[in-house]
Amino acid sequence: MSMKKAIKYIVWVVVLLLVAFKSVYIKKLSDVKAAKSTSFNAATYAQNFWKNKLSQAEAKAVDVDELFAQLKSNPKEAFQKYGHAIAIGSTRFFMVKGKGTVRQITADEVELNTTGANNTQLATTYVFGNAVRDASGLVSINDFTNTIDLSNVSGEIDKIIRKQVLPPFRQTVKAEDHLEFTGAIELNEAHLNLADAEIIPVNLKIIK
Description:
Low-confidence stretches: 30-35
CATH superfamily of the largest domain: Envelope glycoprotein gp160, DUF2291, alpha/beta domain
Number of domains: 2
Structural class: alpha/beta
Largest sheet: 5 strands, mixed, barrel
Distance between the termini: 99 Å
Mean pLDDT: 87
Oligomer: single chain
Shape: globular
Strand content: 15-25%
Number of strands: 6
């Protein structure tokens, strides 16, 4: 190999080594974990959603009796018109409002006769899942970098309902009370059963 070629070869080796060196960096594992834990705060997101966004969905909520009537006459149209979902499938979530009379209070639910004579249930103990998050139509999967954060938002919203909405209601509600409510319902178009419809409440008011 000539001297000129040897020098050129050495220069290229040095350049490649410098590029490789600049491309590699090391972080402490604790720093990586800290970055992950602080990059997204599901509780903060849920609180902002609850205080500043959810009212938009409540304002557009369909009357539960109207929804049930349309589901009985033309379920496909009702699902398309009022249903929301992040995931693909036959399950849709609906933001509903309505009035009703308390028929019975159980350990887990308050059973209602709505104004339109439909029987439905308000969940008052086991509030879990994505119903409120998805029924709002205000949360997009594209807003999140991973599905864990998206799922954690649901958990935090449900936590707000369990801690802020339900305890004062459970302490005062009685049979024969008249209620106004807004909430979310999860329904499956392929296996539609309105008798099992359960409302996850976001707003409850006992009418005196």
